[in-house]
Amino acid sequence: MPNFKFMQCVNAACNLRMPIDLDQYSGKFCPVCGEPMEFVSDPLDFKGSTGIIARPKREMVVILDNLRSAYNVGAIFRTADGAGINKLFLCGITPTPGNGMGLEKTALGAEDHVPWEYHPNALKLLEQRQSEGLQLIALERTAASIPIFDFCPERSDQRVLALVIGNEKAGVDPGIIDLCEHVLAIPMMGGKGSLNVGVAFGIAAYWLSFV
Questions:
Q1: Is 183 helix (H, G, I), strand (E, B) or coil?
Q2: Mean pLDDT lowest among 9-18, 50-59, 60-69, 90-99
Q3: What is the CATH number of the domain that holds 185?
Q4: What is the pTM assigned to this prediction?
Q5: Among the residues of 84-210, which ranges form H helices?
């Protein structure tokens, strides 16, 4: 584990306060003004936090269809691990672990814990698996989308929930939208019309897993 300490610059005009990994950086001098840094605190002890566990209320798989960014996919792997997602289906041009595109940089080992499969055609995959009774849901902004926080899966519905995340620019394949039982959207209050796909996935994954 990294040897972190919180350090503070002694220069009152600067007073930078930051955590420093002492195995990587001596921490003697401020990276902003060059004055000495002094120890102010140890970091929090997170050892006991592993006992804080809330189990997902339903089984859930995720279809990542034609995502472009390996970093986004890596971040989704890490979030999927935390949210207890059962499996990721990586489809189309979505980067996969071990292909040299840098997915592991943001996955931070989660790719070794979350089961995954690759399929070239997400639409064909979902058509083939319709007989399994999946509750198919897309995360996409359309005229018919339901605000995600207005949607609560029925507790009595024991089907596996399958969440579809589409391309960062083009969105979810219209052919897949036609198969979906629900299309959900995250409310956007600002000037931008969408979130980073990894951030959007995190919101949806935790809401649908634990609500």
A1: strand
A2: 50-59
A3: 3.40.1280.10
A4: 0.85
A5: 103-107, 122-129, 174-179, 197-210
Backbone CA torsion sign across 163, 168, 173, 178 = positive
* Burial status of residue 18 (CB atoms within 10 A of its CB: 0-12, 13-18, 19 or more): middle
Neighbouring C-beta atoms of residue 100, cutoff 10 Å? 8
Identity of the residue numbered 85: I
The domain of 8 spans 4-45
The 10s digit of each residue's pLDDT in 115-155 is 999 999 999 999 998 888 899 999 999 999 999 999 998 88
Same domain, 105 and 124: yes
Domain total in the chain? 2
* pLDDT tops 70 at residue 27: no
